[in-house]
UniProtKB/TrEMBL annotation, chain A:
This is NADH-quinone oxidoreductase subunit J. Its EC number is 7.1.1.-. The chain crosses the membrane at residues 12-30, 37-54, 60-80, 100-118, 149-171. Keywords: Cell membrane, Membrane, NAD, Quinone, Transmembrane, Transmembrane helix.
TrEMBL record, chain B:
One of its GO terms (molecular function) is quinone binding. Coiled coil: none annotated. It is an enzyme of class 7 (translocase). Residues 151-449 form the NADH:quinone oxidoreductase/Mrp antiporter transmembrane domain. NDH-1 is composed of 14 different subunits. Subunits NuoA, H, J, K, L, M, N constitute the membrane sector of the complex. It is a multi-pass membrane protein. It is found in: Cell membrane; Endomembrane system; Membrane. Its EC number is 7.1.1.-. InterPro entries: NADH-Q_OxRdtase_suN/2 (IPR010096), ND/Mrp_TM (IPR001750). Belongs to the complex I subunit 2 family. The chain crosses the membrane at residues 12-32, 44-64, 76-97, 132-149, 155-175, 187-210, 222-245, 266-288, 300-319, 326-347, 359-380, 401-419, 439-465, 477-499. This is NADH-quinone oxidoreductase subunit N. GO terms for biological process: ATP synthesis coupled electron transport.
From TrEMBL, chain C:
Its main location: membrane. It comes from the Bacteria. This is NADH dehydrogenase subunit L. Residues 76-125 form the NADH-Ubiquinone oxidoreductase (complex I) chain 5 N-terminal domain. GO terms for biological process: ATP synthesis coupled electron transport; electron transport coupled proton transport.
Length: 262, 515, 634
């Protein structure tokens, strides 16, 4: 065991990013908004990635940032955006004593484990990497992966296959054979209707950008066609109507909206 | 840099290769096979895989080696449990494949992605197609379980835990009828299972941190050398939490009744039989191989947990009105009985105590019996699927004497009545506990058995001495697969009760851990 | 006794038990769909068992030492614990095996006709098969536990069959009585087995007989007396004899098979099988002798007074089994004689019961002999077979009973002491009384003026019933001669009981034969004088001597039972019921309520919410981690 001291730079990085990582974790748990939670988690993961790099594991740090932060978390965010960020669950607790008990037990568990680890590692000295790094990060990891942890590595593939198959099972609806029309048929069918052109997008001329806001026709009515199927039109908070002299003579006024002037 | 290839004994890996290979082929069939012939092909592939696994484990009998760079311990106990899992798994797959009972010819949904209760869902209710992915998924789970009981390495153990859990989460949600209940069960199982996995993983990390290795043998050496101390103990606690969850031992049992009730009954049977074997296999290996020298630390814990599990399972089972839930609590109580056998393990590594073979025998006997009991549940149906409410079973003996008789046999075995496998198993584990001086535990176990016997016998009384309800359930005529399952499990329940000598002897000889 | 492992056919001896058991299982589980052919299956399995038993016995004769132990299975054999069960086929058990399956087959055949019109015939055959299987287990087991299982099995079958017509209150009461009195005996047997296990650590015959020599005298006597209690209960011996005559409420084939030929002889088997124990305890053996002598006189006296044909036969059975007890009580000289008498008795008593059944069949289930009379002409086959059985029973020279009963009397006299003379005298007196009551029965049933009611038209039974009677009649005639003179039973049984010392004859055998025959003739003559000469009144005369009145009431046995046991018993029961209702039930109900209550209270934790489950797991994890840390820290 060589006596190794921790450099100032490393200490500074730790004491800055440590609290950041912890704050990210807490923020992730306590955020009510799923997108915020995901972003908090990104913060934590980025911090961890930096830690890895600082501890001479650049490969792991890069993987952490590229795969976890870059790929997985962004995928999460995509999904959250697609599902709609305001489809959140009720946060009212209906079970009596659940929160109190959860807090007590959570703190108790953290205390127990924390105290245990603190006690166990109190006298542990600093130990350098030595030549654990060997010829280099990537080679070493590869070496371990294909020798000592070969079985675990290989069996993980079973896990991934299961995950892929599971995702298909839960999300993919197989179409009945023949129930799907070809492009040509679809195109023909479209030209046989009254409206061969594309439908108007939502929110055209409207003052909100939610998909639930219909496009406004020139006469101020809502174009029902513009709403995507499956979305119920509803009142969405709209931007305030332009008021004041400066706006007089604007298209709104010229077209004579049905709204009462304020 | 040159890498030396690790020693890989293909022979020792053969059972796993068979099962995982079959699962992969199943996925390929799913992708490229013609839709019409998918079901029979999938059943055949899955059965060939599991039976191949069973045969290869039997052929490997007597092998004792550590392979795959020390990550896999192929030994007597491991092979016995692997064979048990493969055999029970094959029987469960037969239950999956039953086409005669449900009017729509399967217990599994046509398309899991179609929202429950939608128009499309109602259209699909009578379609005879099946989400055939259940077969490769179940095969993956069997493979994971077989790996779980031979894992000689905490990391492999964790991966195996996930490999066995993930497919189970999925197929729990694929019931054709009462889909919302089934999906709820799947989500609950997934969330709680992940929670438990997190504990396990944290435990692995702590143990690795303390000892610098994840190999069980390495951990034992480090522990014997008094390294680690608190950290190792904390790690052990968290590892045990993760495993007790899978074994549905109280107080980590809360998922069991809900998931058992919601999941499709063949899947419930599969979970009840195979998961229990796998989880106890891992508990035995962990406690015995890695922490055998530290018995004094975990012994009081197992003692207490066993009592809690037996009492909670037996007492809560009393007021259940749904048979699947009742069997779930029975499974909790049986987990407690099994833990009494775990206590009979010898503290020293070399002498074969009576605890290990007793637990192995119990697992086999319990797995067969509970599989049979759930198979009987699939037979009794009302208009909306299986009739699992207790009141619907009133007077069943008059409608179908054979079904009632077979069910009675299984219930008697679960209650541990002599001349059934349940008695032999209980006898073996209690004896092991008493020999090890844990007679108060055996006493509690006896009392708990007496309480539990009440709710098993209540079903029998209900079947035989009650007037059948006017609009009671019908008893379906099972097809070949379920018939095979019922015949095998009933015969085994009887044989292991009347002439258990051979199997007990086998378990005795096989009760060896390497690593 | 040296046994050898079973080979060849003998290793399949378990099939002898399994076949009837299979029949019973099929009939009971098969339900109504087996109604049509159930009785045939039941009969076929017993006949097959008989054939197999016969082949086994033939093979056994060729085996060195004549004893074979067929390991049935090892239940558990791991290290210290070795629990198993096996069958012991030796001359004694083989003899019983043949008797049970042989007579059993005949009675099954007979029952096909007798029960033809009963709607529950299938159930009847199922119970009969069950009985045969249990009885075979009783005699073939190689340990006392197997014997006990069979013992309880035949008790159960007997209970079910006595109460077969359970819509008759008398049948239900009789079944209950049989059940209770048998329990008293069973307690004795069970205690004896406990004592063996506690003292010797084994219950196998081999182990017990090997170890009894080392036991203290008191223990041995206790063991002997407890076994005797069991034997008395099952065999209807004094003081537990009262249930047997009442058991005649069952269908007649049952009386023939169970309560005459086989089950009631289980007590004799038990004592004969336990010979090594009794050989060491003269006290217990003396009690056996006393029980046998008292019972044989008691049965004979009471038999003289009853008018119910089946009850007379039943008391005759009680009395004849008394002879057998007397014989086994005499020790090695008597064992073979007892078994021989048991066999011949099995033939002629079964034949007599079947004959009685045939008479009842003809007379519309009438059992009162005062309503019979002059049936000899209407029922010729029954008359002839019954008559041969009768002659065999009273010991008419050169018929079965003559050979075997004489042997017992000779053996008793050969003791040479005052007890020998007393026992011999009792036995001779019993022979005279037997001749009296049996002649009375014959005269009242088959001779004299018909005393039937208008609507009775006696007719001979169908051949499916008469054929077994004929076979049994042939047996009654020839069995004794064959067993004593042609194939001497005592030689055949030597491997079991050893070679008895050649006793000095106190009285010359020929003289004994003459005296017994003379006493028998006196009995017959007396019966003719009292019954045959006069008109038989259709109603039993009320003004009779106190002796007759006492005999009619079975020498007040039931009264004694009632006042000594039943009344105080009922009293005690009432008191116990009170205690039970208030105390025990209270406790049990309280316990049940507590369990149920805690169950629903605990069940409330099962909220169905994942977050609450997760909380529970977290709590568990805290406790687990805390406990482990506490253990290591402490």
């Amino acid at each position: 065991m060589t006596d190794v001291a921790i450099g100032t730079g490393e200490a500074v990085v730790f004491w800055i990013l440590g609290p950041v990582a912890l704050a990210g974790a807490l923020g992730m748990v306590f955020s009510r908004n799923a997108v915020h939670s995901a972003l908090w988690l990104v913060t934590t993961m980025l911090s961890l990635g930096v830690f890895y790099v600082v501890q001479s594991a650049p490969f792991l740090g890069a993987v952490q940032i590229i795969v976890y932060t870059g790929a997985i978390m962004i995928l999460f965010l995509f999904v959250l955006m697609l599902v709609g960020r305001d489809s959140s669950d009720s946060v009212v607790e209906t079970l009596r004593g659940q929160r109190v008990a959860a807090t007590v037990l959570g703190v108790g568990f953290a205390g127990l484990v924390g105290a245990g680890i603190a006690r166990a590692t109190r006298d542990t000295g600093i130990e350098g990497l030595g030549d654990a790094g060997g010829t280099g990060n990537i080679e070493t990891i590869a070496g371990v992966l294909f020798t000592r942890y070969l079985l675990a590595f290989e069996v993980t593939s079973a896990l991934l296959i299961t995950a892929a198959v599971g995702a298909m099972v839960l999300a993919h609806i197989e179409r009945e054979p023949g129930s799907r029309q070809t492009q040509k048929e679809l195109s023909r069918a479209r030209f046989l209707t009254d409206r061969p052109q594309t439908l108007p997008g939502p929110g055209v001329f409207a003052r909100a950008n939610s998909v639930a806001t219909g496009a406004l026709l020139p006469d101020g009515r809502t174009a029902e066609d513009s709403l995507a199927t499956g979305i119920e039109p509803r009142e969405v908070e709209q931007m305030p109507r332009p008021t004041g002299r400066a706006q007089l003579g604007s298209p709104d006024a010229a077209l004579g909206t049905t709204d009462e002037p304020r | 840099m040159t890498i030396e290839a690790p020693d890989l004994s293909l022979a020792a890996l053969a059972p796993l290769l068979f099962v995982f290979g079959a699962a992969c082929i199943g996925v390929l069939v799913e992708a490229f096979g013609p839709r019409d012939s998918r079901h029979p092909v999938q059943v055949a592939v899955a059965l060939v895989g599991t039976l191949g696994g069973l045969v290869t484990t039997v052929l490997l009998a007597g092998t004792r080696e550590v392979t795959a760079g020390g990550a896999l311990a192929v030994d007597g106990a491991g092979l016995f449990l692997q064979a048990t899992i493969a055999g029970l798994g094959a029987l469960s797959l037969l239950l999956f494949a039953e086409r005669n009972l449900d009017p729509a010819r399967s217990a599994f949904v046509v398309s899991a992605a179609v929202p429950a209760g939608s128009v499309r869902d109602r259209e699909l209710l009578t379609v005879q197609r099946v989400q055939t992915e259940v077969y490769p998924l179940a095969t993956f789970a069997i493979g994971g379980m077989m790996l779980f009981v031979t894992a000689n390495d905490l990391l492999v153990m964790f991966v195996a835990l996930e490999v066995l859990s993930l497919p189970l989460y999925l197929i729990s949600g694929l019931a054709r009828r009462r889909r919302l209940l089934s999906q709820e069960a799947a989500v609950k199982y997934f969330l709680l299972g992940s929670f438990a996995s997190a504990f396990f993983l944290y435990g692995v990390a702590l143990v690795y941190g303390a000892t610098g290795t994840v190999r069980l043998a390495g951990v034992r050496e480090a522990v014997a050398g008094a390294e680690g101390g608190t950290l190792v103990v904390l790690g052990l606690a968290l590892l045990v939490v993760g495993l007790l969850f899978k074994a549905s031992v109280a107080p980590f049992h809360t998922w069991t009744p809900d998931v058992y009730q919601g999941a499709p009954t063949p899947v419930t049977a599969f979970m009840a039989a195979c998961t229990k074997v796998a989880a106890f296999g891992a508990i035995l290996r962990l406690l015995y191989v890695a922490f055998g020298t530290e018995e004094w630390t975990w012994r009081p814990l197992v003692y207490g947990v066993a009592i809690v599990s037996m009492v909670i399972g037996a007492v809560l089972g009393l007021t259940q009105t749904d048979l699947k839930r009742m069997l779930a609590y029975s499974s909790v109580a049986h987990a407690g009985f099994l833990l009494t056998g775990v206590l009979g393990l010898p503290a020293t590594g070399d002498a074969a105590g009576s605890g290990l073979p007793a637990v192995m025998f119990y697992l086999l006997a319990y797995g067969l019996t509970t599989l049979g009991a759930f198979a009987v549940l699939t037979l009794v149906r009302s208009g909306e699927g299986e009739a699992t409410h207790l009141s619907q079973w009133a007077g069943l003996a008059q409608r179908s004497p054979l079904t009632a008789a077979v069910m009675s046999l299984f219930l008697l075995a679960l209650a541990g009545i002599p001349l059934t496998s349940g008695f032999t198993g209980k006898f073996a584990v209690f004896r092991a506990a008493i020999e090890d001086g844990a007679w108060p535990l055996a006493l509690v176990a006896l009392l708990a058995s007496a309480v539990a016997a009440f709710f098993y016998l209540r079903v029998i009384v209900l079947m035989y001495f009650s007037e059948p309800a006017v609009d009671g359930p019908t008893v379906g005529v099972p097809g070949l697969p379920t018939t095979i399952v019922l015949a095998v499990t009933a015969a085994a329940t009887l044989l292991l009760g009347i002439v258990p000598g051979a199997v007990l002897g086998l378990a005795d000889r096989a009760a060896i851990f390497v690593g | 006794m040296d046994t050898v492992a079973a080979e060849g056919l003998l290793s399949a001896s378990w099939l002898v038990i399994a076949l009837p058991l299979l029949g019973a299982a099929v009939l009971l589980l098969g339900g109504r769909r087996t109604d049509a052919w159930g009785h045939l299956l039941g009969t076929a399995t017993v006949v097959a068992a008989f054939v197999l038993g016969l082949l086994c016995t033939v093979q056994l004769a060729g085996v060195e030492g004549h004893a074979v132990d067929a390991e049935l299975f090892t239940f558990v054999s791991t290290g210290s614990l070795d629990v198993g069960a096996g069958l012991l086929v030796d001359p004694l058990s083989a003899t019983f095996m043949l008797l049970i399956t042989g007579v059993g087959s005949l009675i099954h055949v007979y029952s096909i006709g007798y029960m033809a019109h009963d709607p529950r015939r299938r159930r009847f055959f199922a119970y009969l098969n069950l009985f045969v299987a249990a009885m075979l287990l009783l005699v073939l087991g190689d340990n006392y536990v197997a014997l006990y299982v069979g013992w309880e099995g035949v008790g159960l079958a007997s209970y079910l069959l006595i109460a077969f017509w359970h819509d008759r209150p008398s049948a239900a009461t009789a079944a209950k009585k049989a059940f209770v009195m048998n329990r008293v005996g069973d307690v004795g047997l069970a205690l004896a087995i406990f004592v063996m296990f506690a003292q010797l650590g084994t219950v196998s015959y081999e182990g017990v007989f090997g170890g009894v020599g080392a036991l203290a005298g008191g223990t041995l006597t206790a063991l002997g007396l407890l076994l005797l209690l069991g034997a008395c209960g099952k065999s209807g011996q004094f003081p537990l004899q009262a249930w047997l005559p009442d058991a005649m409420e069952g269908p007649t084939p049952v009386s023939a098979l169970i309560h005459a030929a086989t089950m009631v002889t289980a007590g004799v088997y038990l004592i004969a099988r336990s010979a090594p124990i009794y050989d060491l305890t003269p006290t217990a053996r003396g009690v056996v002798l006393a029980v046998g002598a008292i019972t044989l006189l008691y049965g004979a006296i009471v038999g003289c007074a009853y008018d119910d044909i089946k009850k007379v036969l039943a008391y005759s059975t009680v009395s004849q089994i008394g002879y057998m007890f007397l014989a086994v009580g005499l020790g090695p000289v008597g064992y073979a004689a007892a078994i021989a008498h048991l066999l011949t008795h099995g033939f002629f008593k079964a034949g007599l019961f079947l004959g009685a059944g045939s008479v009842m069949h003809a007379m519309g289930d009438e059992v009162d002999m005062r309503r019979f009379g002059g049936l000899a002409r209407r029922l010729p086959v029954t008359f002839v077979t019954f008559g041969l059985g009768y002659l065999a029973l009273i010991g008419f020279p050169f018929l079965s009973g003559y050979w075997t009963k004489d042997a017992i009397i000779e053996a008793a006299l050969d003791r040479g002491d005052w007890a020998g003379w007393l026992l011999g005298g009792v036995a001779v007196l019993g022979a005279g009384l037997t001749a009296f009551y049996m002649t009375r029965l014959m005269l009242m049933t088959f001779f004299g003026r018909p005393r039937w009611t208008e609507d009775q038209h006696p007719h001979e039974s169908p051949s499916v019933m008469t054929a077994p009677m004929v076979v049994l009649a042939v047996g009654s005639v020839a069995a004794g001669f064959l067993l004593v003179q042609v194939f001497p039973l005592d030689t055949w049984l030597e491997p079991v009981f050893g070679v008895p010392e050649e006793a000095e004859h106190v009285v010359a055998p020929a003289l004994v034969g003459l005296v017994v025959t003379a006493v028998m003739a006196l009995g017959v003559l007396a019966a003719w004088l009292f019954v045959g000469r006069r008109e038989v009144p259709e109603v039993a005369p009320a003004r009779v001597s106190p002796v007759v009145r006492a005999a009619r009431r079975a020498l007040y046995a039931d009264t004694v039972n009632e006042s000594l046991f039943m009344r105080p018993g009922q009293w005690l029961t009432r008191a116990l019921v009170w205690v039970d209702n208030r105390g025990v039930d209270g406790a049990v109900n309280g316990l049940a309520a507590t369990l149920g209550g805690s169950s629903s209270r605990l069940g409330r934790a099962q909220t169905g919410f994942v977050r609450s489950y997760a909380l529970g797991m977290l709590g568990g994890a805290v406790v687990v981690a805390g406990a482990l840390l506490a253990v290591t820290a402490g």
